[in-house]
Amino acid sequence: MKYNNPKGQKSKMRMDVITVNNWNELNDCLFDKTWDLTIKRHRSTYAYRGVSDESWFIENGLSRLGKPYKNMEQNLLKQFKKYAQKLIVERDTEWHWLSIAQHHGLPTRLIDWTYSPMVALHFATDELNKYDKDGAVWKVNYSDAHEMLQEKQKKSLAELGSRIFNVDSLQSTIEDLQALDSLHAKSYDVAVFFEPPGIDDRIINQFAYFSALSDPFLSMNKWFDMPHVKGKVDVTKIIIPKGLKLEVRDKLDQCNFTERVLFPGLDGLCSWLKRHYKPI
Asked: Between residues 199 and 196, which one has the greater pLDDT?
């Protein structure tokens, strides 16, 4: 197991960057620090995100649209609500709308995470055209991140008996995007992690989490590097060498972490078959 710095970066990020050598080291890193001594059980407070190219930054879809203009985020969400209204009637809160929009591909400030290390590994190894690149799994302690919130938000989590929000508890203390934006200050931003509503089997099977920052165009990498975050939020980047990817992929398939399960339906089935039987 090798500890190193992000490639090509002279960042002051105080986080662990670990290059693993084999499957056993990979699993040790993924499940490290998940033992809860108070209940003597493995109960993780980490969100995981897999990327097929370790050099990629963790940026949201809104940022990837290009240079922002005034009200870009508001216009996207407004038009989504206008045309999707007849299809979505469960509840009318901004966090619910955002969750559904993100899930269906609308560029938002939300970033996808998962509670499952194995699901994150799937997304780090599912693109066969990236097998010439090292992959990575990011691992972030959302409980640490929520310690930076205001007392009323931390109280809401305590009342919920949880260390992560759901859409209802988040709405009760941070009503909407404007309220989240109000927590932004110069050189200071906060992150919230929350469980989206279980709107379909895909989001349930992927054990999905979302995160949102109080600056809609800030990457998570830059947030990790902010002075109030460095050393306060436990962040680990686990690099999966390209030579290890195929073994990881085959073992995930054997464990049934595949497109067929994570994307239920004929599209997921065909994606799995196409990848699984493609000659390497």
From this structure: 196
